[in-house]
Design goal:
By secondary structure, the chain is of the alpha+beta class. The chain contains 24 helices and 24 strands. Bound molecules: 2-(butylsulfanyl)adenosine (IVH).
């Protein structure tokens, strides 16, 4: 590599430094300071210079993109074995763990521990030599793993170079690669669209992504890292786990969320409880908490059993997995005609909810599981995700479920979908499709018509009162009073809810229409880009594709929908019936209107609405909802019982406002949300 002219080399070096800094802020701190477009611009500039001058630094962000696919992975020996962990399932087992430690140490002195979430992902070892990432390997059998360096390099949170003080000559850092719950769900939706089977849980998704022979696939999956362990090291000394974690954090490695250092087992139990209570709100799946004796000197004394250290233990939370019996498999027809096999299950409690049915997605999945009625199956829930059947434990005698030859509801022809695994009813007036479309239209995230749920939609449809969206607005109280289950008050309530839904937002309305590939997110993006629904009439796919987040399929589907005269007539009729669409993203003149434009906002404490909803609101208003406070935070918004973030914000001089004040800020400009 020949060094280019001084000023070019300097520019390249500065670009690498700046881009890595932005990458760290975005992927580790979750607090970016520049918009994505600016990042992309700098990235393109760097790529251009590197190509023209043939000068590529080893930690250049351009070196993260996937490389040519491999035939197979080569093996890597771990300099120190990667151990596994002993498990505990109750507070008493934790107390027993401490008694054992004290016995082995021959001392009754208080023990200091670290407590952190146990990530449900795939363990890896990152080997750095003179500060540069050399190899990354999977755990394998603990002694020897697979070389997944090319894949791991594509993960943005993985430092390619150790930045910071005391860069050791050589260090092996262990951690977990995992996929967030949201990303896992998005990936599965995407896979289903492509006709691929879904991943059963975020762990399988992460493992599948890391063990890809084609690293360009890994590069497209949004994976995260949390570092928690030290392997072989030379050139630096750490006295304790905590000291090591602090060093990692200073060197820009992501460390376990909420990791704590506490004294004595009762404080450990308290911290585990905290993780257990909070884990449903984590963005990742935590299946337990890991407790480690903090002092490395004590770890040395305690040593290792065969495969597990004596100085650490994993507290496992109640499984979100259980076995139950398949009572039946029926076919359900969705609002787009897709015919989905659904298993009715013997009700079973998993992670606090009763599960009595689970979608089997498609016939590929039925084949893969080889599932039939009467089978004993394993069912799993990850986070607040819908349940999945992950495996058949014991075969029953039940028959095989074959793909439908005609629609189970209306008897129309069925068509095989593009992907080839889904079947679709082609009957335009299939009652199941109509009902599902109306249910979707009235649902909470759409037009939000309370009282127009499953049961009532079926009733109204069956009586011929509601066959199209517009029929909803023609309903009169007297119509309802004739129906079973309706009295004066409930009828009035429904009419009132319908009336209230007449005034809605552009994003909700677009979502309600049930356009193929337009979920809540795409609807929101559309609303941000078109101030009035009429601008979408006869829109071209090319125009929609100008929006960065819109893919070709979505654009075509949108153009199809708004190119159909019958659909446009429906929209006109809805407008005649008094449906008024406001677009809070734009002011009266159609100018974009985002009160939180460019602001980074962090939430803490209990809020009157679900946190996710408030975050969405912030994003919709042009802000960025981040999870940790830094000097770049614009506002810290606090609810009841705010956490330590409030103190941190104050100490950094970040402005703090209450949830009510945030709402005021958004209302002050006369913008609806
Ligand atoms: S410490 C000797 N910390 O759990 C210490 N492991 O059952 C071994 N894991 O293979 C690892 N989160 O894949 C540690 N915060 C955490 C962890 C964690 C997840 C996984 C890791 C390991 C397995 C052991």
């Amino acid at each position: 590599m020949k060094k280019p002219p001084e000023h070019v080399a300097e520019e390249i070096e500065k670009l690498v430094r700046d881009l890595n800094e932005h990458c760290y802020r975005y992927h580790v701190l979750d607090a970016p300071v520049i918009p994505d477009e600016e990042y992309d611009r700098l990235f393109r500039r760097l790529k251009e210079l590197e190509e023209n001058f043939d000068y590529v630094l080893p930690d250049s962000p351009t070196q993260r993109v996937g490389a040519a696919p491999l035939d197979k992975f080569s093996k890597v020996r771990h300099a120190e074995p990667m151990l596994s962990l002993d498990n505990a399932f109750s507070d008493n087992e934790m107390r027993e763990f401490e008694r054992r430690l004290k016995r082995q140490l021959g001392s009754d002195d208080e023990i200091v521990y670290t407590v952190e979430p146990k990530y449900d992902g795939i363990a890896i070892e990152l080997s750095y030599r003179n500060g540069m990432l050399g190899t990354a390997s999977t755990r394998g059998d603990g002694y020897e793993g697979e070389d997944v360096t090319l894949n791991i390099r594509t993960i943005k949170a993985v430092p390619l170079k150790i930045e910071g003080e005391n860069v050791p000559e050589s260090i092996d850092i262990r951690g977990e690669i995992f996929m967030g719950i949201q990303e896992f769900e998005d990936l599965n939706i995407e896979r289903e669209k492509q006709g691929e089977g879904p991943f059963a849980n975020p762990r399988n998704a992460a493992a599948g992504s890391v063990r890809q022979l084609d690293s360009s696939i890994t590069a497209r999956r949004r994976l995260h890292l949390a570092c928690y362990g030290l392997g072989a090291v030379s050139g630096i000394k750490f006295g304790s786990q905590w000291e090591f974690i602090e060093w990692l954090s200073r060197c820009r490695f992501p460390v376990p969320f909420g990791i704590r250092r506490v004294t004595g087992i009762e404080q450990v139990i308290e911290s585990i409880r905290w993780i257990g209570e909070k884990r449903d709100s984590f963005s990742f799946e935590a299946d337990g908490a890991v407790v480690k004796v903090n002092e490395f000197r004590l770890q040395q004394v305690l040593g290792v059993k065969t495969r597990e250290p004596r100085w650490a233990i994993a507290y496992k939370f109640p499984a979100r997995r259980s076995t139950t019996k398949v009572l039946d498999i029926h076919l359900s027809v969705g609002r787009l005609g897709t015919i989905t096999p659904v298993a009715s299950l013997e009700p079973v409690r998993i992670g606090g909810v009763t599960v009595s049915s689970s979608s089997l997605h498609n016939w590929d999945e039925i084949e893969r599981l080889n599932i039939g009625i009467g089978d004993l199956v394993e069912v799993e829930r990850a986070g607040d995700v819908i349940p999945h059947v992950t495996a058949v434990r014991r075969k029953g005698t039940g028959k095989k479920i074959l793909p439908p030859e005609k629609c189970p509801v209306c008897g129309s022809h069925v068509e095989k979908d593009e992907g080839g695994v889904a079947y679709r009813c082609i009957g335009l007036n299939c009652p199941a499709q109509v009902r599902e479309r109306i249910k979707h239209y009235a649902s909470r995230a759409a037009m939000d018509i309370t009282g127009l749920g499953e049961k009532n939609v079926e009733l109204l449809h069956e009586r011929g009162l509601v066959r199209h969206f517009e029929d909803i607005y023609k309903l009169k109280k007297e119509d309802l009073l004739d129906l079973p289950g309706f009295a004066e008050k409930s009828a009035w309530n429904l009419i009132d809810a319908i009336d209230r839904s007449r005034s809605t937002t552009m994003a909700r309305f677009l979502y309600s229409l049930g356009i193929v590939h337009v979920g809540e997110y795409a609807a929101r993006i559309l609303a941000r880009n078109f101030s009035d629904i009429k601008e979408l009439y006869h829109v071209t796919p090319e125009r929609v594709m100008e929006i960065k987040q819109m893919g070709e399929k979505t654009a075509e589907s949108i153009a199809n929908f708004f190119g159909d005269t019958e659909n446009l007539q429906t929209l006109e009729r809805l407008s005649e019936l008094g449906v008024r669409i406001q677009n809070p993203d734009f002011d009266i003149e159609g100018r974009e209107n985002l009160p939180l434009d460019g602001m980074t906002i962090v939430l803490t404490g209990r809020l009157p609405r679900p946190r996710k909803e408030v975050e969405e609101l912030i994003e919709r208003k042009g802000g960025h909802a981040a999870s940790s406070v830094s000097g770049n935070t614009s506002y810290l918004v606090f609810g009841e019982d705010p956490g330590s973030k409030l103190e941190k914000a104050r100490s950094l001089g970040v402005r703090t406002i209450s949830y009510e004040e945030l709402m005021h800020m958004l209302e002050a400009d006369n913008r609806l949300f």
